[in-house]
Design goal:
Layout (H helix, E strand, L loop, with lengths): L6 H11 L13 H10 L26 E7 L6 E7 L12 E5 L23 H6 L3 E5 L19 H15 L5 E2 L2 E2 L1 E6 L1 H12 L5 E7 L5 H5 L7 H13 L7 H13 L6 H6 L3 H4 L11 E2 L20 E2 L12 E7 L7 H12 L5 E6 L13 H9 L5 E2 L2 E2 H12 L16 E6 L2 E5 L7 E5 L7 E4 L6 E7 L4 E6 L2 E7 L3 H4 L18 E9 L12 E2 L5 E4 L2 E6 L3 E6 L3 E7 L17 E10 L23
Parallel strand pairs: 3-4, 3-7, 7-8, 8-11, 11-12, 12-15
Antiparallel strand pairs: 1-2, 2-4, 5-6, 9-10, 13-14, 15-16, 17-28, 18-28, 19-27, 20-26, 21-25, 21-28, 22-23, 22-24, 22-27
Length: 633
């Protein structure tokens, strides 16, 4: 949907920065029976520009390989929904052609030609490679983006969800060369960030359950967690998304979305009315991951501190209502999930929870990570030498020897066409690939949560003091590596108590009386991450630890916390020291850190469990550096 100058300067910067988010022989049944089924969903106009007619197996004069724009009315409100059709390079009316959907990132737009079009930094396989391999592709302007009408509602099931269903209906009604298995359209999806979110939404909402194979990259599981983890607003991202959403969509971001983001930054609290709405636009809600049925809950932003200003620029409705209940059963879908280890908008934990959800449908689901992601659009203070390498080549999407583009082609060839071998991408039985650096990764059978326990305390068992106004962390020693290497990969678990260190003083905390400063309320926030002191740096004074994967977890207020930290992956070498880093501030949360100026220092104590997996072999890139060959090319 990533340094912070004043907000209006940020809006000017988003035009260039947000470009990275723009993605970022079986028996068949004929298309005639499926077209009848599609017509029952409601006819949709052909809608092609300049009188172009789709290639057709009933008309030998129509040659495949055409690229054309389609505009249809939304069934929800009549707004224009625009998409680009890329026909397969060669029409095969015997085998027919599976369909792949492609989606852009937040504030992006559809691709308009096979070489990349308006989205040069896309995710998934290049469209030209897909059409050459025999796939039909539809690239979508999501609602409020590009040429599509309406406002950007961030994958609202009642709006974007219904638009997506209509696009697939259109394809079945007007493309007679599509491929079916057991009467069901063979359908896949690619895209990153917002372009990963639409794949999950269509999987959740399509009543005909046509999604067969998806490749979502760097996308979310739970928007309240993405933007407000531990009830602390990610102010950098809230400002970035509000600015990019308006600047790059000509002001078509829905005012409810804008107002929610800006109100969260201004007050330091994500608006309570918005939490269920953002949750209902998330796979976590549909998967029942911590949410009950919220169908019918409404919100309009009128109670926000910044209302009516933020909700009325431009003047549009901004009313939201939850239209669907969580899923009771799960459609089978084969999913190849990619997530960035250094991505602190949508972090690795989100991919892990999507992985758990999709597995419930019984499909083949695999989880891979790489070093790039939304972190390329934000201050990256973690493992500086690695950050420099990544900025030099920000689009490297390898997990060791697994190249994301090649793996996507292998995935679709097996799951949609029944040919090839997806295990060449990542072996079945080791369904998780964790990237440690640009050139190093490990394959494991599952994600480890927790692990070996270490005390969170200073020498002598003293509690850890943290000054809330500074970015310099307090360093808590944990463990080292005597010889060989040890792979730290998975989701650490933290169990600590935060307070003044004296219960009588903690009891003096008062309820906040006003929304901005909350004086006397003990509204403190500390940020906890894992760090490393390398052997080469350990003899230097002062010792400078580096934050692993640029990931921190906020802990807000006083009390006991038992939480998952953000997933990390790093190889620890002989002589290196692992430490816990406790910050009083963080660039990601720069405007929403501790508000209560009467509380300047807190202490914490407890334990942390680390996923230390031992000296695992590297899943390294091949000598050619290109990952897998692309089948069929």
């Amino acid at each position: 949907m990533r340094q912070i100058p004043a907000f209006f300067r940020l809006v000017m910067l988003t035009t260039s920065l947000a470009a990275l988010l723009t993605a970022c022989g079986t028996s068949e049944t004929g298309s005639s029976g499926s077209s009848t089924q599609a017509r029952q969903r409601g006819d949709l106009p052909l809608g092609t520009a300049q009188g172009v007619k789709p290639a057709s197996c009933s008309n030998a004069k129509n040659v495949a390989g055409q690229v054309y724009r389609v505009e249809i009315p939304s069934r929800v409100d009549g707004e224009s929904i625009v998409f680009q059709v890329f026909e397969p390079d060669t029409l095969n009316c015997v085998e027919k052609h599976a369909l792949i959907l492609e989606g852009h990132g937040y504030s992006g737009s559809r691709q308009t030609d096979k070489s990349g079009g308006q989205s040069p930094l896309s995710f998934g396989a290049p469209i030209g490679d897909l059409t050459k391999a025999g796939y039909a592709v539809i690239s979508i302007d999501q609602r409020g983006h590009g040429e599509s009408g309406g406002t950007v509602r961030v994958m609202d099931p009642a709006f974007e969800g219904q638009d997506l269903v209509a696009i697939v209906d259109w394809a079945e009604q007007h493309l007679d060369f599509l491929k079916y298995r057991d009467g069901n359209l063979l359908l896949g999806g690619i895209g990153g960030s917002y372009g990963g979110g639409y794949q999950m939404l269509l999987w959740e909402t399509d009543p005909s359950q046509r999604m067969d194979a998806i490749v979502p990259e760097i996308t979310w599981n739970d928007l309240p967690y993405s933007l407000n983890p531990g009830n602390v607003v990610k102010s950098y991202w809230a400002l970035f998304l509000a600015g990019a959403g308006d600047a790059l969509t000509q002001g078509r971001q829905d005012p409810f979305i804008r107002a929610t983001l800006l109100d969260g930054v201004a007050t330091g609290v994500f608006p309570a009315d918005a939490l269920p709405q953002f949750a209902a636009h998330s796979p976590a809600y549909f998967c029942g991951q911590g949410y009950s049925d919220m169908k019918g809950v409404t919100a309009d932003g009128s109670s926000y501190v910044l209302a009516p200003l933020a909700t009325n620029i431009p003047l549009t409705s901004g009313v939201f209502s939850i239209s669907r209940s969580p899923l009771k059963r799960f459609q089978k879908v084969d999913a190849l999930i990619f997530q960035g280890m250094r991505d602190h908008l949508f972090n690795f934990n989100e991919a892990y929870h999507n992985y758990q959800c999709l597995q419930r449908g019984g499909g083949d689901v695999r989880l891979l990570s790489y070093e790039t992601g939304h972190g390329a659009l934000s201050p990256d203070v973690g493992l500086v030498s690695q950050a420099v390498q990544i900025q030099a080549l920000p689009l490297s999407r390898n997990c060791g020897s697994v190249d994301a583009t090649a793996a996507t082609l292998a995935w679709f060839n097996e799951k949609l066409l029944g040919k090839g071998n997806a295990d060449s991408a990542i072996p079945s039985g080791k369904n998780v690939c964790l990237s440690l650096t640009q050139k190093d990764a490990v394959a494991v059978p599952q994600v480890t949560v927790g692990g070996t326990e270490f005390p969170v305390a200073l020498p002598g068992g003293l509690p850890v003091p943290v000054t809330l106004a500074q970015l310099v962390p307090t360093i808590v020693p944990l463990t080292g590596v005597a010889e060989g290497t040890n792979v730290l990969a998975g989701i650490p678990r933290l169990k600590v108590k935060v307070g003044r260190g004296v219960e009588a003083l903690d009891a003096l905390c008062q309820k906040a009386q006003e929304p901005l400063l909350r004086l006397g309320s003990c509204d403190s926030t500390v940020f906890v991450g894992l760090g490393i002191i390398t052997a080469s740096a350990s003899g230097k004074i002062p010792v400078v630890p580096e934050l692993i994967d640029n990931q921190v977890m906020p802990l807000r207020g006083f009390g006991d916390f038992d939480v998952d930290m953000v997933g990390v992956a790093e190889r620890i070498h002989a002589g290196d020291q692992l430490v816990l880093l406790v910050y009083g501030n963080s660039p990601t949360f720069i405007a929403t850190s501790s508000r209560d100026l009467s509380t300047a220092i807190v202490t914490l104590s407890g334990t942390v469990k680390l996923p230390l997996l031992g000296d695992l072999p590297s899943l390294s890139p091949s000598a050619s550096g290109g990952g897998l060959p692309i089948p069929g090319l």
